[in-house]
């Protein structure tokens, strides 16, 4: 044990001989008892030593010039760090009761009378050294305990944080699993119907009516699959703020009526009482996105209204704004759910009936699309089983006196333009080529970009339909190469892609394409695009 670690004893005496006698006595037991001895010749020097060291005990002479023992003791105990140091007063005379009281009031722990008896000195000092040693051990143990407590607290915080992170990750994983299971369910339903209808068409005994019905089912369920994919893509676009609106002036009432006709044609509205009250109401909006809004609201009302219920659909022009309201007598919305109905995936996490189907993103898309149009949407319900209503408000536009006449259908062209189809998906390429051929278009097709460029140079079509995701060279490079060739630069290029963001459309046009169509492409839209490209006055 070093001197820094040993308990220290301070001997204070102005008489050099007495000081030497006491320190010598104490030094002879220092190694055995494990302490160190320091000395001071005055009260002031004792105070300096107390400032520098901690002491197990101080042997303090009472009769000193200047600052006597009592004054020194009082000064030592006034300092917080040294207030508890035990002091043994050393005096040459027997103190009376008054002196003893005075000494104890100054912090005396004991008295020694000179001449000092060595055994008594040793015994008294040993008690305080042992006490100091024990206190130091306790202090170190308390310090270690404090360190350990700090470590355990930090570990506990870390474990708590890790548990919270793990719970959050498990919640996310659970939500992901639920959503994937829900998505699988939503995809399997139309796929099952398509598969069954396709098998029915191939049966030898299937009658014309059954085959026609099967074709309708395939077409309808394919559209349903397309809507599911569109919803997923639109969710991503809505959350990243990348939805691009193609605005035009249109009548919301006519658009909602068309959406309602679609629901009626599919038999969705047969078991409900529909009350429709619509007046012409014009807005500047994207017809596709506004159709999504109306379709989602009507679909939501049908899902959560039991058969026999009532659904009210109203469109009104208030001169300040256009109002679309869909009200039902269905299951209603609880007070807890109401503030969250427009949150993503809220359907899967709260109390709406999952058996009703849907991805739980329809209302979230509605809110985002309405906001992109500069409008607002709100939900109202008196609670569970009390029905609900959704109100959309959009900025009003000036009415259009007469809609421009529709362009002549592609079939009216005197000469059908020659088509080159560049598509790597064998089934998709075969079906589109067959369909275009059925409409009277001369069609050739290629399975990759390099073959497509070579065929374009030899075939010189009027219009090339080019898939973007091609093997070898992609559709962008196909367009660039065709635009660089003297013989092929005149070919009208239509991009067919599954990517529909604004950046994707920009890249398509920058690569040299004339038009950008997102898969799956409706045949009417495709023929219209071909007709526009083939028309002599069509804009580039």
From TrEMBL:
Q: Please verify whether the record's keywords include Repeat.
A: no
Histidine kinase domain residues: 182-398
Q: Which reaction does it catalyse?
A: ATP + protein L-histidine = ADP + protein N-phospho-L-histidine
Q: Which GO terms describe its cellular component?
A: plasma membrane
Task: Name the source's superkingdom.
Answer: Bacteria
Record-listed E.C. numbers:
2.7.13.3
Return one GO MF term: phosphorelay sensor kinase activity
Q: Report the InterPro entries cross-referenced here.
A: CheY-like_superfamily (IPR011006), HATPase_C_sf (IPR036890), HATPase_dom (IPR003594), His_kinase_dom (IPR005467), HisK_dim/P_dom (IPR003661), HisK_dim/P_sf (IPR036097), Sig_transdc_His_kin-like_C (IPR004358), Sig_transdc_resp-reg_receiver (IPR001789)
Keywords of this protein's UniProt record, alphabetized?
Answer: Coiled coil, Kinase, Phosphoprotein, Transferase
One Pfam annotation reads: Response_reg
Membrane topology reported for the UniProt record: Multi-pass membrane protein
Which SMART domains does this chain map to? HATPase_c, HisKA, REC
Q: Which residues carry this modification: 4-aspartylphosphate?
A: 61, 467
Give start and end of each Response regulatory domain: 8-129, 418-534
Coiled-coil region list: 128-172
Known PROSITE patterns for this protein?
A: HIS_KIN, RESPONSE_REGULATORY
Task: Please state where this protein is localized.
Answer: Cell inner membrane
SUPFAM superfamilies attached here?
ATPase domain of HSP90 chaperone/DNA topoisomerase II/histidine kinase (SSF55874), CheY-like (SSF52172), Homodimeric domain of signal transducing histidine kinase (SSF47384)
Can you name this protein? histidine kinase
Which species is the source of this protein?
Massilia atriviolacea
Upper lineage is: Bacteria, Pseudomonadati, Pseudomonadota, Betaproteobacteria, Burkholderiales
């Amino acid at each position: 044990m070093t001197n820094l670690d040993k308990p220290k004893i301070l001997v204070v005496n102005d008489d050099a001989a007495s000081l030497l006698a006491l320190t010598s006595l104490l030094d002879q037991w220092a190694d055995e008892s494990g302490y160190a001895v320091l000395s001071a010749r005055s009260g002031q020097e004792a105070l300096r030593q107390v400032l520098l060291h901690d002491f197990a005990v101080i042997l303090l002479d009472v009769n000193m010039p200047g600052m006597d023992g009592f004054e020194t003791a009082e000064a030592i105990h006034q300092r917080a760090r040294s207030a508890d140091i035990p002091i043994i007063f050393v005096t040459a005379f027997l103190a009376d009761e008054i002196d003893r009281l005075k000494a104890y009031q100054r912090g005396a722990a004991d008295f020694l009378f000179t001449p000092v008896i060595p055994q008594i000195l040793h015994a008294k000092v040993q008690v305080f050294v042992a006490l100091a040693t024990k206190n130091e051990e306790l202090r170190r143990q308390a310090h270690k305990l404090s360190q350990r407590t700090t470590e355990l607290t930090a570990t506990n915080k870390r474990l708590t944080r890790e548990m919270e992170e793990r719970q959050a990750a498990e919640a996310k994983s659970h939500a992901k699993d639920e959503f994937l299971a829900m998505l699988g369910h939503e995809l399997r339903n139309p796929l099952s119907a398509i598969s069954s209808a396709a098998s029915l068409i191939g049966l030898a005994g299937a009658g014309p009516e059954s085959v026609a019905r099967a074709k309708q089912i395939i077409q309808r369920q394919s559209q349903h699959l397309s809507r599911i994919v569109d919803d997923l893509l639109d969710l991503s676009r809505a959350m990243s703020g990348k939805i691009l609106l193609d605005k035009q002036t249109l009548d919301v009432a006519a658009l909602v009526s068309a959406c309602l006709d679609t629901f009626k044609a599919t038999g969705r509205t047969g078991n409900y009482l529909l009350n429709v009250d619509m007046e012409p109401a014009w807005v500047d909006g994207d017809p596709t996105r506004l159709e999504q809004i109306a379709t989602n609201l009507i679909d939501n009302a049908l899902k959560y209204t039991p058969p026999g219920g009532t659904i009210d659909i109203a469109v009104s022009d208030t001169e300040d704004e256009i109002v679309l309201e869909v009200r039902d007598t269905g299951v209603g919305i609880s007070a807890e759910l109401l503030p969250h109905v427009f949150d993503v995936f809220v359907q899967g996490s709260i109390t709406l009936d999952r058996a009703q189907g849907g991805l739980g993103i329809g209302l979230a898309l509605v809110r985002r699309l309405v906001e992109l149009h500069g409008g607002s949407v709100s939900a109202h319900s008196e609670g569970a089983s009390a029905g609900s209503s959704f109100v959309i408000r959009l900025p009003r536009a000036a009415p259009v006196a007469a809609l421009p006449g529709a362009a002549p259908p592609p079939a009216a062209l005197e000469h059908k333009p020659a088509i080159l189809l560049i598509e790597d998906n064998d089934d998709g390429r075969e079906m589109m080529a067959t369909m275009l051929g059925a409409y009277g278009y001369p069609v050739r097709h290629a399975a990759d970009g390099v073959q497509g460029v070579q065929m374009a140079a030899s075939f010189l079509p009027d219009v090339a339909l080019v898939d973007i995701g091609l093997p070898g060279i992609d559709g962008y490079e196909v367009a660039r190469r065709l635009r660089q060739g003297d013989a092929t630069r005149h070919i009208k290029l239509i991009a067919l892609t599954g990517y529909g963001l604004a950046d994707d459309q920009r890249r398509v046009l920058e690569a040299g394409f004339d038009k950008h169509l997102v898969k799956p492409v409706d045949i009417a839209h495709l023929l219209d695009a071909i007709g526009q490209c083939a028309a002599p006055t069509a804009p580039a």
